Amino acid sequence: MVFRFLSLCSLFLFLECASHVLSPVPIPEETFSVSKQIQWIQTPNELKLKNTSFDRNFIELSLSEPFLTVSEVETVSKYRMASFKFEESTKRTCSHQSIDSIKKEIGKITILGKLSGKNCDSNYQVTFSSKSDTEIEFKITIADETLNRIQFIYGSHPEEKIFGLGEQFTYDEFKGKKPFFFTEEQGIGRGDQPITAGANLLAGAGGNAYTTYAPIPHYITSENRSVFFENSGYAKFDFSDAKKTKVEFWDFQSEKSITGTLWIGSSAKSLIETYTKKTGRFPKLPDWAYGTWLGVQGGSEKVTTIVKQAKDAGNPVTALWIQDWCGRRVTNFGDQLKWRWYADESLYPDFKKFVKSMNDQNVQVLGYINSFLADTDPKKPGDDFTNPLLTEAKTKGYLVKNGKGEDYLIQTVGFPAYLIDLTNPAAVKWTKDLIKKNLIGMGLSGWMADFGEWLPYDAKLHSGVDAKVYHNRYPVDWARINREAIKEAGMEGKIVFFTRAGYSYSNAHSTLFWEGDQMVSFGTNDGLPSSIVGLTTSGISGYALNHSDIGGYTTISNPLKNYHRTKELLLRWAETSAFTPVFRTHEGNRPLKNWQVYTYTKPDGTKSLGDEDTVQLFAKIARIHFALKPYIQSLVEEASKTGLPVVRHNAIVEPEDKTLLNYKYQFFLGDDLLVAPVVESNEIVQEVYLPRGKWTHFWTGTTYEGNRKIQVPAPIGKPPAFIRVGGKSEMLIRSSLESIRNKN
Questions:
Q1: What is the pTM (predicted TM-score) of this model?
Q2: Annotated catalytic residue within 335, 421, 453, 587
Q3: 121: annotated active-site residue
Q4: What is the architecture, at CATH level 2, of domain 650-741?
């Protein structure tokens, strides 16, 4: 009895201290054919699923340490302006793992075992199911539903590079990094100084290298394998260990399990195509979408004058985006909107007639909407703002609630507002009817469908779904509702709405993305350079059609440093945008502080910042974009069929070129146009790295051999761009641009 007691004690101490996975019996070496080309391989040290035709593993599970850990964690969110901070308290953790059995069937592998720790014990099950020889679905379930946080560890390789993860703005490759996944405001500065420190000091809103409106827990690797998690709770990915990947999901029990898909492919392109076949693809853009979209506001007289000015300069204007169609509201942040979704007849008398007058000039009109309803501002003495839509939504119970069951009042930038509850079918129908009547019914050809990332972590929703896991799904539903309203109105393919917040499956609903509110700066984390990274990363995870505000948006007046848009920044941003699907301007949140693409003098004598030279140069750059219309159209059509992005990361087009990966501000438009935009101030000569093959400089016609660095002149109006000699689209690009090369 004493021996047995000592043995049990020794075993208990071993369980508490051991770091490897335990099994009642040793795991034998065995190979099992799950399918014709998939093998399950197990040894005492490792479990893995292998595709034999590609000779690559879908997944590798080390047995030298637990590959599953679960905990019960209490999390409290601090919420301010859609920037989230979390306080965590761990109650208990199951850090020891045993494998009790491995069941092997044709098409399916099931691992059963236990997870244990102090005051913690639960059964678990991991299932891998083959859907094809290149696709495996996985599911992890934990029996104890009070354990709400899980960590899953699987193998990686030291040289394996990680790409994608939704729309990221600082990094375009993630080996060694620790990104998190929670849709929120991207932050003001995101590490660029001194603005980030100031934004954090005043509002905790500076952001960091991983804050983004549109993350997706999906990536591809340089070894042509892809991983996608279906879950929508807060997540962390840890790629800091060269030999393994750690993935952590919060509140996964609200979704009953951890589920996802593993793919092996022949190339990055094949993996993107497979991923988007599952999650959705963007529709083709209407023909009018390929010209200049002028983002102007201020009333019918002003916008009409500016459209004429641009057209007279030879600018191919095909759309007018007037975000203040619903009314202007001036706050301490700048020029904002009334957030009541009907035409403001004081700014735009007889709005429907105004829209038709623009249409008669072959200019489509776009507006603005979000899922908030604004309220009177109690901080503004004598605020006479009213919102009948808010009154109706309150009366009918269409708003998101707080923990007390009251309508959840949210302090936004400038004024308080309430969110529509998109889990309430009646609220959804009401919202779609509003869109069909007040936007489509007025003749609008599209709109910015803004926000989506502001749902509070502790909100209470009509359907009963936990806001912790619905938070990331809210912007997906917001896009779906806009798309359904268009379909129900019989306008599919004719109307374009563009969203900034998103998550997995947003690409099944949105017709276009834009990158949100970058600073009006050259800052690498939140200025012009970051907009390029946002384009290239997002395209890997399904956002095939994306663009940014030309010139940026966020404008700050500060005693330490003003962030006001300069002429140089505006035109350099335009040059970059000329090689993206959509070419759209924005005045920014403080229009009178920013250099604009137009000149305009108000009746009171107030002048906008801008000059005739800018009007002419901007028209010149706009003609580059418009000349590329046939090529961009072909890429948009390809995107609708395959999910391949229009703007492409270097790793998609030239995956073998390791040097090219160091040039993260270069990108490809399709496969055959290499773009190296100027992203630093006062630069007139640009260093460009050319990959394999031959490349013709667009402006001079000089052809260069690849695999080398070159220096090219880069005056404003002639952005560095190179045509791939022998590319399948070479002649299309040459013919498209020949007409403007001499003219420009």
A1: 0.95
A2: 453
A3: no
A4: Sandwich (2.60)
